[in-house]
Model the fold of this input.
Amino acid sequence: MKVVLATLAEDGIPPGQALAGSGLDEAALANLATRVSYAQSIAVFRNALALARDPLVALKAGARMHVTAYGIWGYALLSSRTCADMLDFAVNYRGVIGPLAQMTHDPSSDPPSCGFRVLLTPDRRDPLYRFALEFTCAAHLTLGRDILGDAFRFSTVRMACPAPAHADAYTGFFGCQTLFDQPGNKIEFDAAWMNQPPSTQDPITHAMAREMCQQILLRLDQSGGTAARVRHALLEQMPWRFPNIDAMAEQLALEPRTLRRRLEAQGTSYRQVLAEVRCVLAVEYLQKTSMTTEEIASRLGYSDAANFRHAFVRWTGKSPQEYRRP
Done:
């Protein structure tokens, strides 16, 4: 978030304006103990979208994310034995950095690639979706060059969102073609990079960094990672039946009041997390199946289609029919 504020500041926008409505101030961000929730990130990024004079603000902010900005996670990447090991670590320990997008990597893919699922919103037409994706792709280009050298580049960038007005700038920024309205989000690169070991590989440093990341994830799982645990558990309940908060607390071996408190500390609630999961699933059903609105409503646990339609409009600003329409 700091790099977004710094990029906006270069455009003459003071941090106070960018932080408006987030519950954060500059002092809080300077405090290493401050944990920024996804709700707070969304508030700041939407401010950035509204305030920025430069349409490339997310790309430029992501490009500031050098490997040292990631702390121990970054040092683990730097000390990895091979590029393949580095990607495996990046995927498995991504929760340490509070990512804007979930990352996947298939070692057998041709060409090699990394996929991303945006976490801030499921709506690929939402400018926030594109903002998070631009930031993420730009950050990974910087990471690749920090670790593998300035010659590193992507061969293709694929984005599920529609092409923005500044789409022509992507080619110059990434140094490769960028395709929009794709089935998923993906960065592709030449297979030769998979055999390129980081020049800073160090097994001892990597083992130490990995252990520290394991401890961080354990702490997150026990406290700050509660919302993610709830999302995962809700998705496992599919189809058709979602537990109430008491049943969810029992499933997570927590007292209901403890679950509420931990979710509140992350700036969310059980009701909000449940709505996020339903929204993600609804978008997937609308985009990838021919299920009727009534069938989707039933699948998501709504008593009738009208209640689902009202909820979907509240989530996305569009009706299910408008969302599905090409």
Notes: The mean pLDDT is 86. Residues 55-215 form one domain. The chain has three domains: 1-54, 55-215, 223-324.
